[in-house]
Amino acid sequence: MEDIIRENFKKLRRRINITQEQMADFLNLEQSSISKFESGERTISVSNLEKACSLFGIPLNEIYKESDIMRELSPSFRKTNLSMESLDDISKINKIAMNIMEMDAILEKHNG
Predict the structure, then answer these.
(1) What are the extents of the domains in the chain?
(2) Among the residues of 1-112, which ranges form H helices?
């Protein structure tokens, strides 16, 4: 399962067009920690994984799935040198959007 998480993490990081260094800054880690995580030499904490998933625009449980198609909110970022403030804002917006989607799904089941 760790291989799936690593591959999905790497795929999603590349899909949103941010570097290992940007991701490391966002997670308050060294760039080498991201590199070692993606290569399988190191693990990443659940809290950092959850924070990364918010930036990716996916619920945490999606990163555990072996699938080419992951439900995600974030398109590829057009700008390559986004500030940490921008990445944090995007993460917060994604969290709000994912909460709304989850609430809609619950209401749909309830109102069926």
Answers:
(1) 2-111
(2) 2-15, 20-27, 31-39, 46-56, 84-111
Sign of CA dihedral 8, 10, 15, 20: positive
Q: How far apart are CA 60 and CA 88, in angstroms?
A: 17
Residue with tokens 């693990």: 43
Phi then psi dihedrals of residue 107, to 5 deg:
-65, -40
- The token pair at 66 is 């072996």
Most distant pair of Cα atoms in the chain: their distance: 49
Per-residue pLDDT of 8-58, as tens digits, reads: 999 999 998 899 999 999 999 999 999 999 999 999 999 999 999 999 999
Report the alpha-carbon angle 13-67-51, nearest 5: 35
- Cα 98 to Cα 19: distance, rounded to the nearest angstrom: 24
Phi/psi class of residue 17: alpha, beta or left (left: φ > 0; alpha: ψ in -120 to 50)?
Answer: left
CATH topology of domain 2-111: 434 Repressor (Amino-terminal Domain) (1.10.260)
